[in-house]
Each structure stands twice: as structure tokens, then as C-alpha cells.
Amino acid sequence: MSRWKSDVRAMAGRILGLRQVLKDALIEAKAPGSWDHITTQIGMFAYTGLNEQQSRLLTTKHHVYLTKDGRISMAGLNDKSAKRLACAIADVLTEIPTQ
């Protein structure tokens, strides 16, 4: 049981760290808006705040797959892909600004 708890703590820590990497990368990429919600949410998924049209463009233009309401899997990211995602989100928000 202690091994399992250790593994769960490690995975949770990894996801928390990735949330910070993504938030920092979004700020660095000058993605419009506040990104505090990325680090205040908990769990394996994060709501990006993108709407359906923005989510669709993120998929078609950048091959980033997420739900229509902008939910992404944090567990599927690593440091490099989080930075790539941030640049893609910044591009989408430049093309289709949030109202």
C-alpha cells in the first residue's frame, strides 16, 4: 500500500508541476487573458477557457485534441508538449479572440 501511495503522490506532483509549466508557457507566449485557473484547478484534466470554435481550430490547425468545451488532459503532457500547447493556444486566441 505504501508503494501505491508513493506512486499516486508522484503522479499528482508531476501534474501540479505541468500545470505551472503550462501557465508559465502561456504567459511567455503572450496568450491573451489570465491563466491563474490552470494552476488553481486540481485533477488530471484542466479547463483551458477556450470556447468550441477556438477548440475546433486548435484541433484542425495544431492537431491538439481536446473536448469542445476546452478541457485537456494534463496527464498527457510533458514539459516540451506543454510549451508547444501554449504556443498553439496563443495562436488560436490571436486568430479567434475570446469575446
Keywords:
4 helices; two-stranded antiparallel sheet; 99 residues; mainly alpha; 2 strands
Please sum up the structure shown.
By secondary structure, the chain is mostly helical. Helices cover 61% and strands 6% of the residues.
Molecular structure report:
The longest helix is centred in the first third of the chain and has 27 residues, at 2-28. The chain is elongated and about 50 Å long. Strands 1-2 form a two-stranded antiparallel ribbon. The protein is mainly α. 26% of the residues are buried. Helix content is 61%, strand content 6%. It is built from four helices and two strands, in the order ααβαβα. It starts with a helix and ends with a helix.
* Beta content: 5-15%
Q: What portion of residues is helical? A: 55-70%
Shape: elongated
Strand order of the largest sheet: 1-2
Q: Count the E strands.
A: 2
Stretches with pLDDT under 50, minimum 5 residues: none
H and E string: HHEHEH
Q: How much is the radius of gyration in Å? A: 14 Å
Mean pLDDT: 96
What does the secondary structure layout of this molecule look like, with pairings?
Elements: H1 2-28, H2 36-40, E1 45-47, H3 52-62, E2 71-73, H4 79-95
Antiparallel strand pairs: 1-2
Helix pairs in contact: 1-4, 3-4
